[in-house]
Fold each of these.
Amino acid sequence: MLPKDPSRDELAFLLEGGGPDPDLFAAARDELLRSIGGGVYLRGLIEISNTCRKNCLYCGLRRDRKALDRYSMEPDEVLDALAVGYRMGLRSFLLQSGEMLGRDHIEKVAWILRRCREELPGARMVLSLGELTEEDFDMLRASGGERYLLRIECSSPSLYGRFHPDDSLHSHGGRMGAIRYLRDSGWQTGTGVLIGLPLQTCGDLADDLLFIRDMDVDMVGMGPYVESPGTPLAEVAGPAPDPGTRTVLTLRMTALVRLMNRGVNIAATTALQTLSTDGLERGLLAGANVVMPNLTPAPYRWKYDLYSGKSEVSDSPEQIIGELSERCRSIGRELVLEDPGDPPHYRERMMEMQERHG
Ligand code: SAH
Ligand code: SF4
């Protein structure tokens, strides 16, 4: 289905629908079963704050969106939400927020991580807090953080420049450097891109696939771009491809990432599920193996307003897990509880790193 070292043109051809999708998705599923197995792993998502110093043109949390009511969860509220997920059998949790370098925020996260080490044995903590300093990355890892997600968003510097302000806070090189630092300092590292942005081509997405492969990360989280009213990209830029096209592009990207990166974890993202009601099933059938149920308590969940339609589900965590389990079973897959679901890629990468450094 896919040559061993696919070229940009070969990837762009497949992204344009040049190979029959059923064959592509079946090849990705075979690869998943061979390298990891058919289990679906959970990451309980807690959106701890919607404050952000950045101004990404597509994002509903951007600094200049003055209409948004900003919040920061109290550490005890975060621990309570984590405990609910832990009791339900989740063993990995993602703490996500806008980007803030203030000591209060970083110290608070470190405190939560230390408490988790004592109170939630065996739970792998994942962070997605944006670009921090190397000292803060190190400090958070020493406090108990193990996985970090930092999407490059667009691997092409010129495309990145189109969707971010032109200043030092939004530096493509800086973001790239942060991802490399995470990877090389032993974090289980994830990256990903936005799919279906206005003016983005299949050639750009092919470059993203080659970037992800060359970055040698352990986890991939990619989602379709979803309009966020009140942001410059939704108000001013030309139209994005229609939602159906963005969905299919995301599924093809998922399958190709699966085929090009042995043993990595891939999420069926919330954005995919927002654009397509059966996005979860379709993502899993295209090679994804991770789902991130949202455990953020209700008053905050609405305010973590990255894009429109994101938080429409108002179910309790128990209802969310019950429904996920049903939906996985309906496509012959099984939710895996009591297991943090480490990607084989990470174990292999760490072994290689140890051999290199003696
Ligand atoms: N502030 C951190 C983490 C929170 S934002 C960071 O930026 O890394 C998490 C992700 O939401 C971002 O990586 C971005 O890819 C995604 N996102 C933001 N706005 C979006 C939109 N309009 N559509 C789809 N995804 C979006
Ligand atoms: Fe802030 Fe992340 Fe949104 Fe950019 S994508 S504005 S860094 S929350």
Amino acid sequence: MDNGRSQWGSNLGFILAAVGSAVGLGNIWGFPYKMGKSGGFTFLLVYIAIAVLVGFIIMMSELALGRKTRLNPIGAYTETKKAYGFLGVFAVLSPFLIMSFYSVLGGYCLQYLSLNLAEASFGLQNAFGIQLTGSNTFGAMLTNPFGCVVFTLVFMIICYLINKGGVSEGIEKFNKIGMPALFVMLVIVIIRALTMDGAMEGLKFMFVPGYAVSAGFIAEQPSFINVLGTAGGQMFFSLSLAMGAMITYGSYLGEKEDIRKNSGIIVFADTLVALMAGIAVIPAAVANGIQNGIAFADIKLSGPNLLFVTLQNVFAEMGVVGPIFGVIFYALVLIAAISSAISLIEVISAYFIDRAEKKGKESNRGKIVLGVCIAIMVEAALVAWDGLGSNGVWVPGQQSIGVLTFNDCWLDFMDCWSEGVMMPIGAMIMALLIGWELKPDFTLNELKNGATFGKGFEAFYAVCIKVVVPVIMCFVTIGQLNDFFGKNVVNYVISIAILAFFFVFTLIRGLKNEK
Ligand code: PHE
């Protein structure tokens, strides 16, 4: 072990944990819908191109940065170049904000798991004549804030128990069982979904270019810039990039493991699960909508509505086996949520553990993880109580501030600063830092421990990290700002200004380094 720091038990354990972090709510509720809406198969090609040219590159860079410094994100950036400590702060603060709602959504999964367990046990619909459709239950759940806070707490306790166990005894162990289980359950749900009448329409929505428009799911095809922004934003969140997770997981990785190969496997597995999740949920959702005579435009295929309204409708109307499939499905989503949440908690915990050790103190993982989980629970209670804006809790940005009206609810508020602002800007500056100031060899030298590659790969990495990643990240930043704060030319100006400023900044500092 290096300087007493935890390590993964095996490379496979690391891969499963990293895939666990990547595979999460983003894959299930974001990817399929965005793919359908933004051009089906065409979107998939754009997504894969960005995943290879940007996602794969940043994945390798983050894992290498983590392993090289053996530190949390703040420590890793500060130790590498003091001036960029703020990137580390972004990468620790973002997970904290994301967890405020990720834990609440995990709580919802537990609640829908309980609902389906109760229906399977007591046959509530038949015995008491209550309709357990998503349309009935979701509103009832959101306007019952006490229950939401309690289940958020249960979700956090589960995560706490795993993280407290440590890197290899907690996180790795959970994923070694959780990931294979998730895969099996996903296959079961896919088989059921594809055998429903009308499932074909759903597949067409996902795969056939332009079908979403021609069938009336959406009014018009988004522009190419929008598609690029959507694909990029989705890819980042889905691969757990620019949130410190891969830097932290990389810091526990053995000296001789092949980071390049591992990164390829993680990117591939995450994309595969996103596609499989789409095939599991979209056909069922569309088939059920058709059977109930709902217009395509009104079938809800994204976000919390997809998971907790549309799909619960499917389970409630499926007959006796419905709740069983409901249990399998929500258990699957729950595992995906836990395996991502524990990586986010680990980012923040690692910071405090490293900090204690730097001060020469013996760090107490249990106590630190408990503290982190309590802090998350406090902000999460607010998001849970808010119930996606159902309970009239005040949130900044809900009323217009000048031209800006950007938040419907606390979930949006937390999401817009993390996913909308810090994530894309952080990744853009990170690429410039490595490409122009530290130089690509910074990462490549670390990759050489464990991988052998030729000049071709080195050139590919160099071109991507210097030019392709920063430019695409600029588009992604514009797209995210447009998404969260409303379309505005100001977003273009801000994004391009940051790109230009840090390009010049890193270039000058890079030239000085050479002297
Ligand atoms: N990748 C996870 C998902 O798709 C979310 C996540 C983001 C997890 C960043 C960790 C870090 O849901």
